[in-house]
Amino acid sequence: MPRILPQRIGHLGAGWLFAPATLLLTVALAAPGTAGITLSRDYPTEGEAVEIIVTRADDTPAVGAPVTVTYRPGSTVSAEDSLGVTGADGRLAWMPENAGLVTLAAEIPAAPGGEAESVTTNLSVKFHGIPTRGILVLLAAGFIFYGGVIQGFRRMTRIPAGLPPDT
Question: How many domains does the chain have?
Answer without folding.
Answer: 2
